[in-house]
Amino acid sequence: MDHINVDQSNKDRRSFLKTAASLAVSARALLGQQTPTAPVPPPKKARITSSVMLWTLKGTFDEKVATAADAGIQSVELVNEHEDWSDADATKYKRMVRSYGMHMDTILASRDWVKRPVSLVNPAHRDAFLADVRHAISWAKKLNVPQIILMSGNIQPDMTHEAQYASLVESAKRATDLAEAAEVTLIIENLNSKVNHPGYFLTSAAEALKAVKEVDNPHFRFLYDLYHEEVQHGDALSIIKEAEPYVNVFHVADAPGRHDPGTGEMKWAELYTAIARSNYSNYIALEYLPVPVDQAGSLIKAVTAMRAALNAVPPEKNA
Predict the structure, then answer these.
(1) Does residue 253 lie in a domain region?
(2) pLDDT digits 0-9 by tens, 213-265
């Protein structure tokens, strides 16, 4: 996988992080936006790569990327923004993201997965699901994206839970064969069914982890959404140590409300400390709806608190 780790970043990347705010200001000027009078420098780095799900931000694609750059974030995640791009658009946006010293780290496999029969949990949907995976892989190669998000799909009322789980594992194995050949990684995400995604099948982080272990391939990993696990089961912390070797991305939002970390009831210092102690070194992506009007300010606050907690655990004490 073409993973970029902070500790392994090259000199150009480190130089960018010192000047990200200035670059973002220049971009905003080109976009005709009002620039701040005193750019805020990006927060201190941590060994874990910071990212943000762009759907959570307001503005055009260009403006969202500039906002992420303002906050010193190192990567961005897409859902299906790219699906309507021409080849020329793909080249343009890929270069634009790189111009900030960032990269794109994930896209979604199945567009409109709720409306179309492309679930992993029904064998009758498998051909359509695998076609979506092939399509997503073509985009991942075009955009140099290392990871593709899989959604389990919704519960099939005429099937037992056990039959649906077995289908999920089999579908994942077949999709992972495609991913391995293309040298990309599939990451399956847990969602909550209580608030945001009624009817979703894979609502348990423990069951998602079980499936990843059963597929037993490094090209099939876990996207652990801490917010969704907290909403569904009330305890996002307990499984972190066990899950960490199989997690490529953690998603962050506070519960209840799905807003900025610190606005809800989740204990972020404890969560980040647990992640740091596990020796995790992949991605943590902010996927919350910012409460402040100043989106960049919100992200700066969130990523600063995240990095402070991660950096507070000395590497020699990680276990």
Answers:
(1) yes
(2) 999 999 999 999 999 999 999 999 999 999 999 999 999 999 999 999 999 99
Q: Which domain holds residue 53?
A: 6-107+183-313
Position 44 confidence tier, pLDDT thresholds 50, 70, 90: low
In a domain, 141, yes or no: no
| DSSP letter assigned to residue 39 | P
* Helix ranges, the chain (H): 11-30, 61-70, 87-99, 126-143, 161-182, 205-215, 226-233, 240-243, 268-277, 295-311
- 49's enclosing H/E stretch is strand 49-53
**292-314 b/e with 16+ CB inside 10 Å = b?**
eeebbbbbbbbbebbbebbbebe
**In contact, 233 and 224? CB cutoff 8 Å:** no
Residues facing residue 192 across a β-bridge: none
Whether residue 296 lies inside any domain: the answer is yes
Cross-strand pairs, 108: 149
DSSP classification of residue 123: G
| CATH for 254 | 3.20.20.150
Task: Report how many domains make up the chain.
Answer: 1
Structure pTM?
Answer: 0.86
Query: What CA–CA distances, in Å, run from 293 to 22, 57, 306?
Result: 21, 11, 21
Q: Give the rounded distance of the alpha carbon of 202 from its chain centre.
A: 17
